[in-house]
Amino acid sequence: MKTKLTALAVTTALVAPAAMAQEMTIVSWGGAYTASQKNAYHDPYTAKTGVTIINDDSSAEGISKLRAMKEANNLTWDLVDLEAADAMRACDEGLAIEVDHDELLAAAPDGTSASDDFGDMIVSDCFIPQIVFSTTFGYRTDLLPEGKEAPAGACQAFDLENYPGKRGLNKRPIANMEWALLCDGVAYEDVYDALETAEGQARAFAKLDTIKDETIWWSSAAEAIQLLADGEVFMSSTYNGRLFSAIVEQEQPIGMAWDWQMFDLDGWVIPAGLSDERLAQVKDYVFFATDTQRLADQAAYISYGPARASSAPLVGKHATLGIDMGPHMPTDPNNAENTFVNNYEWWADNRDDLDAKFQAWLAK
Amino acid sequence: MTDATSQSGPMLAADGTPLKKSLARALRMQKTRALMLIAPLLVFVLVSFIFPIGKMLFKSVENDIVVETLPLTVAELQNWDAESGALPDEALYAAFVTDMVVAIEAKRHTRLGTRLNYEYTGMSSLFRKSGRKIKKLDPATDGPFKEQLIDIDKKWGDVTTWAVIKTHSVKITNGYFLNAVDMQRTPEGAQTQPEDKRILIKLFQRTLFMSLMITVSCILLGYPVAWLLANLPARTANILMILVLLPFWTSLLVRTSAWKVMLQQQGVINEVLVWIGLVADDARLVMINNQFGTIVAMTHILLPFMILPMYSVMQTIQPTYLRAAKSMGATNWTAFWRVYFPLSVPGIGAGSILVFILAIGYYITPEIVGGTKGVFISNRIAYHISSSLNWGLAAALGTILLGVVLLLYWCYDKIVGIDNVKLG
Fold first, then answer.
1. Do residues A39 and A10 make contact, with C-beta atoms less than 8 angstroms apart?
2. ipTM here
3. Those residues with Cβ within 8 angstroms of residue B359's Cβ, 6 or more apart along the chain or in another chain
4. Which of A128, B273, B354, B361 places its Cα 20 to 30 Å from the Cα of B101?
5. Are residues B375 and B346 located together in one domain of the fold?
6. Is the pLDDT of residue B345 over 70?
């Protein structure tokens, strides 16, 4: 009996700390996106280290859940995938730790430091960039009026004369306000300055007023694809990766309209409050999962551009369909004639104010 | 009789203690035993429900972040008159730098920036950007700070910035509640929001109005079904009951999406109407992404909550009452209206309370089918909980919603009487 107990105690002592380090909970968006991460990062990492990775598809409620966990003092997540704007909010709220990008992340194969390789993508001290995606327009090729050219991008959404039919837009001010001003003739450099003034906001709302009656407002990206697939709208804004899978994988009669696509970033944040042991584990994973090759690998599963400059030349073919992924990337020169980058700092300041105004405008 | 009155002391029990006392003890023991029986439930409800909800509701007035992050500054601000229009003096700037250096060390300054940004646009980046530079200052040796701070960001030379900090430096604030009713806390007292930001009162009104519409449609549709259920032969009634319960067992999201398929412009109903020629192809009906869509989908989803209480009350109404009424010369209608209907009112009451209270807090269905004119106040609460992280405002909105429900419940009790509500 006594030996048995000792044996048990010894095994527990040996197994317990090891077992804790053998598991990681990684939070992401679910669906095709989590699948691409699993193929490109998780599975190779598990094969290399034996660490099991548990996926939790909660990124949509990422920051609120992180905050609730912090208040309850019970952190169950190891790494969280967030959009850059949310990452910034998490950083401000003290929910994520600040990292030294050069120390934490691998250098590029040619020796360029991580912070130079990622460059402008590092928009917050807590943010570890991963992909560039874009919010852009898709249109129904079969509903295109006869004799008209395919819509080029966002500005054709405001052109009801040449392109009649319903539009789908996101039920929030970000991107819509910028598009309204850009298509009303405001120069790209002046957009955010204009939006800061009451006249600029009024101008944007006036432009949106011209299509308000013809617009269906969506709140999740899947809705936008459903609206397009059912022919409920002629054109709709949504994320380019969703459009890619609807067009290429599901063969829907949908075309891309890239002009004035809005670049946005997605990446990792490390939650604040991890134990040293878990933190070391997470850092090891992040080092592996954000190196040049891994980021390029992810692009074989989903049409989002890698955030590292050094990964771009390595982007190849789709893993199962065998098509070249290059032309489907938001960063491809043919798609990127006119683009704009979401100004995170500006939105962090103005989001509360403009969102209230936007909702009041919607309800009018 | 003479025996009892002749006793001088109080009445005694068999063991010699006064009867009153021993009765009280027996009663107390009974009560303790009863309490012990419900203790697990009571503790569970307290720990897992009342306490967290109370804590969440408290967030609607809690505002100690300003005082805790900037204690010296807040003390100095008491000596400064915001209405004078003059900037505060050097002592305040020095106190502010001292506070900020501590706050930056603890990474609390950006949280404060986010908090103040709810009230005044621009505070978030002001604190974030200034933090990087103030970090390098030493409060003991680098003074004076007034010029330096204004150099770092000209907003520190703006009276409004300091007035906002002063206005929101109280520990318990009414600011969130004011925001929740489209007002704001300003240095000059409570004021209404500018017109282009007023949205929440409208949403409260809409939530109440639409919940009422949904309750009424549930009564109209549910009453005949409940009557059939209670009066058909058992075998047929069982099949009907399964039909009522079937949607109840289907996922909420699936049912809501099914309504989307039915109601949208390229949906089943419109296709059929166009096919039989009732509606022109270019004038398809708009039945979704508006109030109509929300009312239809939510009525369907909440209908079982109306039918079940009605059914269980109707089952207890004896058919002999109706026969008796008819035998005394009542028409079918009179017998129903004067005899059957009054007996079924408790069921309507119970169903209405259930449906109305569920409807008022609904979130997912209005989000999917409500478009812009069919969303509820709960959609805003969800936004502030999960996107803007303004939990104070979310808690204030939640508290008001809770208050409204309690008020309506009280009115209901006064008008109909809560004893008159039966679940069976």
1. no
2. 0.87
3. B210, B211, B214, B215, B298, B302
4. A128
5. yes
6. yes
